[in-house]
Design a protein that fits this description.
Largest sheet of chain A: 7 strands, mixed
Structural class of chain A: alpha/beta
Number of helices of chain B: 4
Number of helices of chain A: 5
Oligomer: heterodimer
Distance between the termini of chain A: 63 Å
Largest interface: A-B, 9 and 8 residues
Helix content of chain A: 25-40%
Structural class of chain B: alpha+beta
Strand order of the largest sheet of chain A: 2-1-5-4-3-6-7
Chain lengths: ~170, ~210
Amino acid sequence: MRRAFLAGCLILGVATAGAPLAAAPSMVGKEAPDFVLRGLDGRNLRLSEYRGQVVLVNFWARWAGDSRREMSALDRINTTYQRAGLVVIGVSVDEDLRRAQEYAVAMRVSYPILFDTGSEIGKDYFLQKMPMTILVDRAGVVRYSIVGFKRGDERIFLDQIRELLRE
Amino acid sequence: MNLKARVVSIMVYGVLSSGWMAPGVWAADAAAAAAAAPATPPAAAPQPATPQPAAAAPDAPPAELKTLDQEVQGLKKDVIDLNKDLFVLQEELLFPANTQVALYISMDVGTFFALDSVTVKIDNKEVKNYLYTAREADALLKGGVQQIYLGNLKVGKHELVAFFTGKGPVERAYKRGATINFDKGVGAKYLELKITDRVPKHQPEFMIKDWE
């Protein structure tokens, strides 16, 4: 009986050794869930209205240290590539709307900033860490998802954006 | 028959019925047939009189491809038909006509009001909160009618309250409500939120129309 139990454990161990660990769910390859949010200027923006253009959506939060650097980088990208058909949208997931608005005003970025105070969009996009950026192609499919922001990531963004704009 | 023999017979049957041999032919029959067969070499076995496939080769592929293409097209059409049926069935199941309540919104003129959002409450419970983009508001101004809500309600008396927010005359923030008490009968119920301009007062007007 003991031998059989040990053999069973061995088989189970061998069988599960090659199985991959449960990966964090990602939106890459899936259709970007639509959302409509109010912007800093009071206008509402709907993601699906930008179908046909390459859209970069940057989810950020005031308390995420990398958000500030990433927003500055995205601002530079936006000013360069918006004429080529790129749309950059910033989405604040901060619960404190007033402070998020103050932060966005202070950042003075050239692209629209939207505010999400609910939790629906976070669930739809599997937001786990901030900041998180997704790139949506002209067909509305999420092609890239980048969590966090570090030095040199701007170049990766540019490569991906150029690739999508060429399609 | 002991247990071992039974297990072996079950295994043999499993192998036979899984396509290794023609189903229904038992191992014993197969062995007997093999023994009774003449011991002729394989080369001397009579060739089947069927025509060679190579003879029809030049014409066969296009015809086959054509048939395959037709089959694919037929399958695609079937999938589309099935999808349509499934959608209708889903609508009928989720929103059966006897409990269905549909709410539409329309806008006429819109000089005194720029729509931003609509919140709908039925029996004091929020059922819809919709933010309008500039493009959607434009579509309403051009005569579009939007189905803003579709749901189910029991037969009886109900109250619907709609809150409209936006910019009123002189670009002022504007929030107004409209209420309707209605009787939900056995059939489907259709209601319409109407935003119109009240020209003499230079104010927008919000109404809820009950389509009998």
